[in-house]
Write a structure and sequence with these properties.
- Helix 8 runs antiparallel to helix 9 and helix 23 runs antiparallel to helix 24.
- Helix content is 69%, strand content 0%.
- The longest helix is centred in the C-terminal third of the chain and has 50 residues.
- It has 500 residues and is mostly helical.
- It folds into three domains: 157 residues, no CATH class; 96 residues, Leucine-rich Repeat Variant (Alpha Horseshoe); 98 residues, Tetratricopeptide repeat domain (Serine Threonine Protein Phosphatase 5, Tetratricopeptide repeat, Alpha Horseshoe), CATH 1.25.40.10.
Length: 500
């Protein structure tokens, strides 16, 4: 064979190979389209929720105390700067540290440290004054600032004093009634040295200190009782009628329960009056306080019963019976309009007017969220949601969640839960995420959920169709590959014959 003919043959073989490679690449590109589409269709088939960040971890109290009393000034300043990060979750840990300090501190030693710190602060007439167990009469400066300004980290008494004052400042920053309770306990726990400082910190709590002071006013120690009474007078809250003057329902509830715990007969009339409050949290707190008062509030309960009913309670009724009947009478009077609305809703449901039913029930729940007959509303909410599943999904979900709220364990609760899961899965599907697991959960909750069944059949059919398409493409790929291999073999053998 001449060289020219050999070059022509080689060129032909290269052209064939190039065309075969292009054909194979084109086929692979075509095949990749449906296969990639199949993968996208299954995104979210098994959904999972990843937990997001929960913010900075809570301040470690033991580490903070070590930093507060460290030899390094920068560390101490850093600990002080962290006081504003305190939050209610730390109260238990702070209380535990204060209890741990109680048996080991040297009260006289801490008094000497405080006197030295105050002298270092420049109060002229105190330069030579001996240490006082009550900390002296200095109410114009913050003792923690004074102690930190005269550091002595090598001395245990200084570390103990700084720790107690520092822990109290964390509690003051938290600012809740529970935090105030722990600050108030510092005085009886550590003695007269801390009385003035505790007084100042309790005043910083304002009305949130009132429930704690009410309880301390009936404490065992004469000194603590006098201390609490004096602070209540400073706050203008020494009488029950004054103590309940607050716009904070939480504080009011704590005040009422505090009067109940100490069985204050003088507060009985105020407590019973709030037992008919329109504010559910306050009403519940007042009724708790009545139970805590016990027989101490019996006379006021009987008087209130007579004023409301118009006749005296039977003489053989104990205070519990009087309280129960009085509260039921209060509820009937307060909820008269609510019962009318409930009846309107039930009547509308009986005539299949679901819009009117939902409107009436919503007004009932707005007036009385814990209405004792609210379970009867669940079927109506579920039935009202059904026709909205495809046309107004947010509204349907809202109605179903209300059904679960009013009757979370009722006979149709699983039906409502199933429909909620199904509608949420539809919402995901509208955004291109098919969550087969959600449809399965919907059917597990309610095997009779026809819509979930229908959707599962559709998804499984689409999945099978994608599987069949995949098989066809694989077979086609195999055929093309076989053809290409055949062409390559033919070219190979022809080349060998031409070289011979």
């Amino acid at each position: 064979m001449s060289k020219s003919r050999a070059r022509v043959a080689v060129g032909r073989r290269r052209g064939v190979l190039r065309r075969a490679s292009l054909a194979l690449a084109s086929f692979a590109w075509v095949l990749a389209g449906p296969l990639a589409g199949t993968g996208r269709a299954h995104v979210g088939a098994e959904s999972s929720t990843s937990a997001g960040p929960f913010g900075a971890p809570a301040l470690d109290i033991a580490t903070w105390m070590t930093t507060l009393t460290a030899a390094d000034p920068t560390s101490r300043e850093s600990a002080i700067s962290l006081i504003p990060t305190a939050n209610p979750a730390m109260i238990a840990a702070i209380a535990r540290r204060l209890r741990d300090l109680e048996p080991s501190v040297n009260r006289d030693g801490m008094a000497v440290v405080l006197a030295r710190a105050r002298r270092a602060g420049g109060r002229g007439d105190e330069q030579t004054a001996p240490p006082r167990r009550d900390g002296g009469a200095d109410k114009t400066v913050d003792w923690l600032e004074r102690v930190m300004a005269a550091p002595d980290p090598d001395q245990r008494d200084w570390r103990d004093l700084a720790s107690i004052l520092g822990l109290s400042r964390l509690l003051v920053h938290i600012g809740t009634t529970e935090a105030a309770r722990e600050v108030a306990a510092i005085y009886p726990r550590f003695g007269e040295l801390f009385r003035i400082d505790v007084e100042r910190q309790m005043l910083a709590f304002g009305e949130r200190a009132v429930p704690v002071l009410i309880e301390q006013k009936r404490g065992e120690s004469k000194e603590v009782r006098a201390f609490a009474l004096a602070l209540l007078e400073m706050l203008g809250k020494s009488l029950p009628g004054e103590a309940v003057q607050t716009a904070d329902n939480g504080v009011l509830g704590d005040v009422l329960r505090a009067y109940g715990r100490v069985r204050d007969r003088d507060a009985a009339s105020v407590i019973v009056a709030f037992a008919n409050s329109d504010r559910a949290a306050v009403r519940e707190a007042a009724r708790d306080a009545v139970a805590l008062l016990g027989e101490a509030g019996g006379a006021q309960l009987r008087e209130s019963y007579e004023n409301l009913i118009g006749q005296k309670s039977p003489p053989d009724w104990g205070w519990e019976k009087v309280a129960g009947e009085l509260f039921r009478a209060y509820d009937r009077s307060r909820l008269a309009e609510v019962y009318v609305l409930m009846d309107e809703g039930l009547a509308a449901y009986a005539r299949h007017d679901l819009d009117a039913t939902v409107s009436a029930f919503d007004r009932v729940l707005a007036r009385a969220p814990t209405f004792e007959h609210r379970q009867e509303m669940a079927p109506a909410y579920i039935d009202a949601a059904r026709p909205l599943a495809r046309t107004d999904r947010p509204r349907a979900l809202s109605l179903l969640r209300r059904a679960l709220h009013v009757d979370p364990s009722g006979p149709r609760a699983r039906e409502a839960s199933s429909q909620i899961v199904f509608l949420e899965a539809l919402d995901l599907a509208s955004r291109g995420i098919v969550d087969q697991g959600a449809y399965r959960r919907a059917l597990e909750l309610n095997p009779d959920n026809a819509e979930a069944k229908e959707e599962m059949v559709r998804i499984e059919g689409a999945s099978k169709a994608r599987g069949a398409t995949f098989v066809r493409y694989v077979l086609l790929a195999a055929m093309v590959m076989s053809a290409i291999v055949g062409v390559l073999l033919v070219l190979f053998w022809r080349g060998r014959r031409s070289r011979r």
